[in-house]
Amino acid sequence: MWRKSKPYLLLLPAAATIILLFFGGIFDGLLKSFGYFPAIGETELNLAAYDRLLHSASFWESMELTLRVAALSSLLSAVIGALIAVALFFLNESTKTTSPKAWHRLFQLPLTIPHLVAGYIVVLLFTQSGFVSRILAAFGWIDGITDFPVLVNDPFGWGIVLTYAWKEAPFVALMLYPVLSRIHGSWREVSRVFGAGDWQFIREIVVPAIMPAWAIATFIVFVFTFSAFEVPYLLGVTYPSVLPVYSYQLYTSGTLSDRPEALAVNMILAAITILLGLVAYYFSKRWNVLKGWG
Amino acid sequence: MKKHPQLLSLFAFIALIIFVVVPFVPLILSSVSFSWRWPDVLPESWSFRAWEYVLNDGRTWQAVGISLWIALIVTAVNILLALPAANALVRYSVRGRWLFEAIIFAPIIIPPFISVMGIHLTFLRLGLTETVLGVVLAHIAPTLPYMFRAVMISYQTLSADWEDQARMLGARALPRFFHVVLPHLLPGILAGASLSVLISLSQYLITFIIGAGQVVTLPILLFPFVSGGDPGIASAYSLLYAAIAIAALVGMDAALKRYYQLNKAPQDSGKGVKP
After folding, report:
1. Which residues of chain A have a CB within 8 Å of the CB of B157?
2. Where are the domains of chain A?
3. What ipTM was predicted for this assembly?
4. Are A161 and A226 in contact (CB under 8 A)?
């Protein structure tokens, strides 16, 4: 009996903690999104909050902004991340003096910087009177503050995109680099024997080799930026706001009737992230990208 | 492509520096500037006013203390929860393994603030809001999966034979754990602990919802400054906050190296005596 139930007893504390604290909270939110508030005498379940939400223009604008910001952030991180990985690859190839580890530490720096700090760095760099604007002015490329485009607290979400591109590109590079370093110099020579040029080598060997890891890393960045709060809260505008900020605005608006709607936004977010997570998991298993993730 | 490796690597080096290091320049300049009007690339005059304010304010060190204290408790709880769970999943045949993995890894995918907003009123009723305990409970779900994963990877490389050997030599359960299992798992535990500390340190929203402004961690203290406060003070706080996050990571790494050095020493001298 003990022998059979032992693993389950060992799993119990961790699983119970997550079920109670995490899924309990989600379930609590789900009930309240159906209008279940025993504290104010509301014990009937209904879909009123979802109905109001799906018919409100601000929800759909918020959804559009969230998708746009997440898509642009993940694509930009993917491109920059690939460039970093390639740059590191060449650095390790040609320099034998410094140990490769030092480089890895340096380019991972943005990963360790807290999100709020990364957001503030983008504020200082890209506001109209920011550092980039000053440098452009020093070169005489712009004449006044207003010549610099509004990139922070802008309705399009550029500031958010820039922050994530800076913070998540090293993550993409971290996922790509091990794959890239497995492409040996000998492969290049073999391809040359078969008559492949540089461009053909990149297109036929390098790109197919790194594609699965690249796609999965980009997708993970997408899922993360889709549901992140801190950076859009700092760098976005009040309207339209990304879904997590929209939910928070509804939750703290002061009127109790908005709370079911806030929690309904959360439930929609949860459903989307679960779906995206399952897709990422399926493909990473199939392509064997995330070794050690279970 | 191969003709100018020196040139190419120089270019790669410069690009990396621009990408990683240059963004910190305005943050540093702004924290030591007195007045820094628009077209000037460098501040007109310098001052440590912002740093004096930040380092002399008692609230700063209180926030640092509370942030680290919360991160430490969260990490300790994570270790206690993750060790047995990882052990069970790696070494036993568990029915419904996918379900347990799905449960424990779920907070990586589903954003934790969704759960925290849902549980908020329940925490309020239980008197857990505005308390450190409440914030600790809120921080466990987002951090536990990373600790669990790190420990699981360590367990995968720990052969059961080693423990059997220790058992054969007469070691009981506790000595077996402390002398055979724990030393092998330590790198994984420390890797998980650094992630756990880092993630706990960077939580703003869930700390704000549960702490309700009464549990002032570093991000809570920082936010009003970065969202339209004094840029000098905001920059100084940002640098301090980033430095503490990095120091936590480097500290863990150094602790691990030190541990190995201490453990290696007797072995080396043993080798010297042998022949």
Report:
1. none
2. 57-287
3. 0.86
4. no
Task: List the 105-164 stretch of A: residues with Cβ below 8 A of B.
Answer: 106-107, 109-110, 112-117, 119-125, 129-131, 133-135, 137-138, 145
The CATH number given to A57-287 is 1.10.3720.10
- A46: CB partners within 8 A, 6+ apart: A34, A35
> Judging by beta carbons within 10 Å of its beta carbon (0-12, 13-18, 19+), is residue A65 exposed, middle or buried?
buried
Q: Which of A288, A292, A166, A168 is nearest to A219 (CA)?
A: A168
Task: Tell me the C-alpha distance between A152 and A161, whole Å.
Answer: 10
The terminus-to-terminus CA distance of chain B in angstroms comes to 53
pTM: 0.87
Of the partner residues B16, B38, B118, the one whose CB lies closest to the CB of residue A129: B38
Each residue of B96-112: pLDDT tens digit?
A: 888 998 899 999 889 99
What pLDDT score does B39 carry? Answer: 80
As a whole number, mean pLDDT of residues B231-236 equals 92
Report residue A157 as tokens.
């979400």
Q: How far apart are CA B115 and CA A22, in angstroms?
A: 6
What is the nearest CA distance from A57 to chain B, expressed in angstroms? Answer: 22
Structural domains present in chain B: 63-260 (1.10.3720.10)
pLDDT in tens, A14-30: 999 999 999 999 999 99
CB contact under 8 A, A87 and B1: no
Inter-residue contact B30 to B216 (CB < 8 Å): no
Average pLDDT over residues B267-272: 40
Q: For residues B157 and A125, what is the distance between their CA atoms, to the nearest angstrom?
A: 45
